[in-house]
Amino acid sequence: MSWNVYLHKKKWMDDEIEVGNHTYNVAPMYSKAMGITISDLDGKKCNEVIPLLRKGILEMEANPAMYKAMNPKNGWGNYESALKFLEEIYNKCLDNSKYKIEVC
After folding, report:
1. What pLDDT shows up at residue 85?
2. Which segments of the chain are extended strands (E)?
């Protein structure tokens, strides 16, 4: 299973920006870094979560050994890919701060 993340300004598909997808297996990393997982971003406005996303990025960058120790044992996802995905969401939100996040 994975998260598919999109940004929407309106409810029409032509306003959709695809951020990407990533495996649920790294959810514990996000919970540790931000206190929430990607699923919890659903329906939030980008400008509301930018500080939280930045906090998560900084936390993960500051403690790579701790987060690498959380790499899923099944090999689906890892610290590097989890951090990259969080950075992708953050950057898309920065560029589209009035959009809402959709996680499915």
Report:
1. 98
2. 2-8, 16-23, 100-103
**Intra-chain end-to-end CA distance of the chain, in Å:** 10
Contacts of 59 (CB under 8 A, 6+ apart): 32, 33, 34
Task: Dihedral sign for Cα 98, 95, 102, 87, please.
Answer: negative
Whole-angstrom distance, CA of residue 48 vs CA of residue 7: 13
Instruction: Give me 57's structure tokens.
Output: 């990025």
Angle at 85 between CA 82 and CA 90, to 5 degrees: 125
- Predicted structure pTM score: 0.94
Hey, what are 60's tokens?
């993960």
Distance CA 23, CA 26 (A): 6
pLDDT per residue as tens digits for the range 27-44: 999 999 999 999 999 999
Residue that has been written with the tokens 């009035």 in this structure: 98
